[in-house]
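quick one
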Amino acid sequence: MIQLNSICKSFEGRTVLDDIDFSFDDGKTNLIIGQSGSGKTVLMKCIVGLLTPENGEVLYDGRDLIHMGKKEKQALRREMGMIFQSAALFDSLSVLENVMFPLDMFSTDTYRDRVKRARFCLDRVNLIDAQDKYPGEISGGMQKRVAIARAIALQPKYLFCDEPNSGLDPKTSLVIDDLIHGITVEYNMTTIINTHDMNSVMGIGDSILFIYQGRKEWEGTKDDVFNATNERLNNFIFASDLLRKVKQEENKAK
Ligand SMILES: Nc1ncnc2c1ncn2[C@@H]1O[C@H](COP(=O)(O)OP(=O)(O)OP(=O)(O)O)[C@@H](O)[C@H]1O
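structure w/ adenosine-5'-triphosphate:
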């Protein structure tokens, strides 16, 4: 579990995050949603330690990220897996070598065991047949799956995904969402996803934090979204005509 207590962050006197409290649970896909510029990326950066909040606590299963020493921070980093907006693969390395990269960097296992682990992760994302290909030879969706395999290679306790569906078509996005949700439940990870994607909200929103102008405006689950009365949330979620119509139909059916 990752717990945020009263997180505040400002840049040059301008408040960007204001007193955010939230708990991200294990075994759930926790989504951070909000309009462009609302503070999602800054919050994610505060959570992973790339930015330091002026105030507040980020607790990783009770361990205080902001006040921990360098060694403890390094150890914690090894428990984190990250999936970036672009898949961020190394073009000159094969798919297998990409997945092996964090293992080569941090694992003390033998080469044989590292290869075994990398192949296991590739198999989990259904890409074992592509292990010898290079990133330039596979589709964007496949690249994201390689990035997922790489992110779970070191068996992280915490998984961070920044806009994992950006640049993907809706069908491929569903595959990626299902995969992230599946591994989250399977490995009981604390997964945090920054997203704009309403399909993700409705599909894998086990827990949703909606940020509006740097403040926590609403929290709930995908099942709560349809009945939420928060106007700012509704304006954000039902900005698309299609979703607004679905909500109207649901209300009529009640
Ligand atoms: N290093 C920085 N220095 C100054 N201002 C910053 C910095 N980083 C972010 N901001 C500001 O903080 C606010 C929140 O930005 P943030 O990137 O977190 O938004 P976001 O919700 O992730 O948006 P998007 O969905 O477009 O990625 C913005 O007004 C942005 O200009």
